[in-house]
Design a protein that fits this description.
By secondary structure, the chain is an alpha+beta fold. The chain is 34% helix and 27% strand.
């Protein structure tokens, strides 16, 4: 993995296009970007591990990652593959709990990393902008929950789990 800081919004207008930061002012975007790291990973590298704790939100700028969990029998299952502009790790912004999945790069991948303290600063200086980010996170989590519900119901119906 290699790391570097993002220089300025003029050099990389990516941030305002990300769902996580939809609706933010140019000033708030600049505040966030000033603190953002850019990390590059090779294919197959673990970005974060299930059970670990974190303080960062990751946004995919290039490449893709697999969201993986360990089953009760010890096998690894891939729940989803995320692609550019998708984010992960956002649950640590809402709650300070252990990571619920391992994220592994599926190919060479570039990620933007925003730390919790960056968002905490924004909460102090621009509370209405911070509220927008929290709302965007809530929408993303609701979308994922809906998709999981649909997968569960569809899988249960196919397997006859509802038959008595």
């Amino acid at each position: 993995m290699s790391t570097d800081k993002i220089a300025s919004i003029a050099k990389s207008p990516w941030l305002g296009k990300m769902t996580l930061f939809a609706g933010l002012s140019a000033e708030a975007l600049a505040d966030i970007e000033e603190e953002t790291e850019h990390r590059r990973y090779k294919a197959g590298e673990v970005v974060l591990s299930e059970g670990s704790y974190g303080e960062e939100v990751f946004i995919i700028s290039h490449g893709s990652v697999d969201v993986q969990v360990k089953n009760l029998d010890g096998r690894i299952s891939t729940l989803a593959t995320l692609s550019p502009s998708d984010c992960f790790g956002e649950m640590c912004i809402i709650e300070r709990q252990a990571r619920c999945a391992t994220i592994r790069t599926a190919e060479p991948t570039s990620l933007y990393v925003v730390r919790r303290d960056t968002l905490d600063k924004l909460r102090s200086t621009r509370p209405e902008q911070h509220a927008l980010i929290i709302m965007n996170i809530a929408r993303e989590l609701a979308k994922r929950l809906r998709a999981m519900d649909e997968r569960f119901v569809y899988g249960s119906v196919l397997c006859g789990a509802w038959d008595h």
